[in-house]
Structure formats: structure tokens, C-alpha cells
Task: structure prediction
Amino acid sequence: MRIRSLHKPEPARDRPAQHPDACPDWFRSFDWSWYATYTFDREVSSSQADDLIEQYFLGCEKYLKIAIPALITKQGGRYSGLGKSPSSVHFHSLLITPVDVSATFLKDSWERWPFGGTRCRRKCHSRCT
Result:
């Protein structure tokens, strides 16, 4: 799990230092705008996926001229050890968008090459609970 683009938080929002049990409550204190899942239409390595998601967010931030604070988790890409192929790498995220950003913008931006491609399944829900 990583947190990106969180600028100096207000004192009440300081991340719980050594208290992992407090993290869920801390994450709930933010006014998240979107939940999004980012998938790929092709196999990508874990490191390629990391680079692509970072490029995607940097491009969105540059285009929108804003920082997009996000909580991003990566899943998949690991071998089971039982002879089965690894699950596909994908990301889940919670985003804070200080300007009006549509689901269409998030989806269309991700589906452009070289990011997720056209087989992406997107689930964006405004106002996460």
C-alpha cells in the first residue's frame, strides 16, 4: 500500500505513527472522491505495473494541473507455488480530486496506450463510504 501526493496533512490528519490498528480510522477521515480499479489488457510485470500507474497519475495531474492525493494498493502478480499461473497485476485506489473529475475522464485516460488498454473493467463510485 502506498500513499501518494498527500501534501502536509493537517495536524488532526497526521498519519498514525506506530499504531497500525488506527490506520483504518485515519483513512476514513479523508473525503475520498473516487474508488477505482485499474486492470491491464495484457500481462505486465509487477515493476512495469508500478511504472505505468505512476506515469498515469503524473499525466492526469499534469493535464488537470492539480495534485491527486491517492491511496493505492497493488494486487496479483504472484505465483501460487502450486503450479498455477500468477493472477494478473491490478490496482485499487481511493482518490481525492479537488476539482470535478468524471468517471469518463479516469476511464478514458487509463484505457489509452500504454496504460490499461481497451479490455479494462472500471468501477468508479463517487463518494466512497
